Amino acid sequence: MLHLASRSPRRRELLAQLGITPVVLDVDVPEIRQAGEASVDYVTRVARDKARAGLALLSVAPDSLVLGADTEVVLGDRVYGKPADAADAAAMLRSLAGRTHEVITVVWLVGKDREAHATSRSSLRFGALDDAEIAAYVASGEWQGKAGGYAIQGRAAAFVAALAGSHSGVMGLPLHETHQLLKAFGFATPAAAESSSPQASPMRTHSTGAAA
Questions:
Q1: Is 130 a known active-site residue?
Q2: Mean pLDDT calculated for residue range 48-67
Q3: How many whole angstroms separate alpha carbon 148 and alpha carbon 91?
Q4: Distance separating alpha carbons of residues 157 and 164, to the nearest angstrom
Q5: How far are the Cα atoms of 54, 59, 111, 142, 205 from residue 27, in angstroms, in the given order?
Q6: Residue 195: CB partners within 8 Å, gap ≥ 6?
Q7: Less Cβ around it within 10 Å: N or C end of the chain?
Q8: 53 neighbors 31 (Cβ within 8 angstroms)
Q9: Looking at residue 77, what DSSP letter applies?
């Protein structure tokens, strides 16, 4: 049985594309970037903390597996979290308009005696956005709960002038990397995953007691 340490409906939908219906675990993990912490290290740590928090909720059986993930929008050294309100969402979109940014998603799979993770890094370029476009998008409410203030699977797809990487990774769960993690743990997925992102980092595997 696969457990998902996330309340994200998008991640559930993406797992459904692999033919998987996970048991959802409600975890609450602080998402605070530490001083001097590299953006990819921050995303990796939060995703790992989610997965481990999910595993801690279970009476650990030998076959218990928990998937945790985190996705962040990064421009330069700035990590864009979820907007606090509509004004914050509009400000994020104005800063991303006409520029290329990165979306980092890290996936951790943890079990009783083993854990591993994979990283997907995608590059997106937004076209120019005028104030009316931004206002209309913010009014739609689609920005709520979305890193960077937008959802590529929704209306914001029209903003994306170029994408290099994993579309599903930008949504919140890179299917190729997730599929490979599950295969490595002997968890068979009945559906084929999408092609690999050329920018995806190789999978890294650890024993539970090893430094991550």
A1: no
A2: 88
A3: 10
A4: 14
A5: 6, 15, 16, 23, 23
A6: 176
A7: N
A8: no
A9: T
3-state SS, residue 32: coil
Across 53-139, the runs of DSSP E, i.e. the strands, are 65-75, 78-80, 100-110, 114-126
Q: Torsion angle, CA of 123/8/16/112, rounded to 10 degrees?
A: 100
Among residues 26, 49, 70, 77, the one annotated as catalytic is 70
Question: DSSP character for 205?
Answer: E
Q: What is the pLDDT, as a whole number, of residue 192?
A: 44
Rounded Cα–Cα distance for residues 87 and 129 (Å): 16
Residues found in the chain: 212
pTM given for the model = 0.87
Two tokens, residue 107: 């996936």
Token representation of residue 160: 């994306």
- Tokens representing residue 12 in the block: 């559930």
Q: Which residue has the tokens 């076209």?
A: 127
Going by C-alpha positions, the residue among 16, 56, 22, 18 that lies closest to residue 6 is 22
